[in-house]
Amino acid sequence: MKKFFKSVLATTIGVIVGTFLTFLIVPFIMVLFFKGAQVAKTEPIKSKSILHLRLHGSITEKHRPLDFDFLGGSSIFSEERTMGLYEINKAIDIAKTDKRIEGIYLEIRDFSAGWATITSIRRHIADFATTGKWVYAYGERMDEMGYYLASVATESYLQPSGELEFNGLAVNEAFLKGLFTKIDIEPRIFRVGKFKAAVEPLILDKMSDENREQNRALLEDVWGQVKTTVTASTKIGGEKLDSIASGLTVASADEAVQAGLIKSVSFEDALEDKMKEKTVGKDEELELVGPNRLIKDSTQASASKKGNKIAVIFAQGEIVSGVGSRDSIGSESLRQDILDAKDDEEVGAIVVRVNSPGGDALASDVIWRELRITDDEMPVVVSMGDVAASGAYYIASAARYIYAEPTTITGSIGVFGLMFNTEKFFKNKTGVNFDRVVSHQYADIGNSNRPMSKYESDMIQREVERVYKSFLDVVNEGRGFEKRSDLEQIAEGRVWSGTRAKQNGLVDELGGLDEAIAKAAEFAEMGKDYQVEIFPEEKDPFSSLVERLAGDSVESWLGRANLETLQQLTKEPLKSGIFARLPYDLKIR
Q: Hey, is 513 helix, strand or coil?
């Protein structure tokens, strides 16, 4: 009888799994078939074409194949969900010298990105414009970040009924002390450094003076970058820009034109007609070329070239132990990527592109060690993206040379430990009590269901301080401060803009990924005869599909913004351990 039930159970499970896989795989194969057929029919890029940069969705470090909305849109695949900074900039660089490309149509929609990302795109577009080719920017609504990018264009346009938000920048943080008080959960905090504000949202109801100071400095640096570059492009003085922002004198498209921020108002179809007249003629269709298509065309044309290689490894997301994912940096995964790059006999240097708030302290140390010994064999250069702070700076300090954008958020050299006492929550809110039996007094240290003794608390604090000392040792070794006291003064968990990080010696130079690659080639004595190869290689389509399903079904129902907020308020604050990371995704908008 038992065998019978086992057989029935196995058959039932098999049917369920088989049905699920059929539902999953068959539509997927059909979509790939049709997508493949579309790619195969792609026509060659014609003369008088325009590079179309439609900024909509999230801009990540690199394009993610098979980004799609699952149960969340009219079609499965959506090329607009994520765009890769690497591909955008590469396409702009190709367009600069491609005689078939007449100009760039920069379409600014509802996009999500950090300031360093937009700074990088803006710099590449400005370089493109030095050739004499034109750049048109268009949007229906723009905030400061969108305008910062649009201001580099030869001509910028807003929809006649459109809006421009230009009222300065702000940092807003959520503080959870009141919530934990209401539900009888007591955060147990262990930290080093007066600026290590990672745990403040759990124990305070407003910013500390130190946190307010560092946030104000970040705002000043980012706004200073905006003013400097916008002034250079538009000839509008910094004082006038401040006056516009302070007085709320610009909101509508017409007001933006009157203030000189935007060249003119235009409907999208009218702007398209103008681009037709400049290229194919008013009675023809515009030849718009997307970044990926231009890159693919260029790659096919130069596929036969060979030479020395520079490996570029992308490290984006929170640092975690073990295997990472598309949105996290796993210590084992990244270490394997580094080993794979080293094993390639043609690779002579490695560039690590870091965009991370940090994370697990031990995982950061594992990655740092591999980068450190790799730099003894071949040059390692780090390029920082929007954020390279705390544990991310820890791993970056292993590099021979570090680049950051002026608007990069970095530093945060500090450590914190986080645990919770949930005894009262369970007793008062749920009626659940806990009891214990132990072989030794501290066998269950860290147990969240009982108070912590002073001895246990002191021991954990000592461990946090030990990790912090190791952090300082690692940075001091990598950056070579003459006096350790100089490093200690800029540490204590304080975050810095890329501009100030260069001034205080945390980074070597301001620039982006291209500059980091060029520096790596210089260290490896490759000259200009080298290839760039991305590590790791893209996953097969099925693996990518399964990974996307893990997060997309939830994201589609909640929406990305709501999902990020939910993760911040639940997952991160409730995770115990010792961390070298920012507590939240610091956003300046």
A: helix
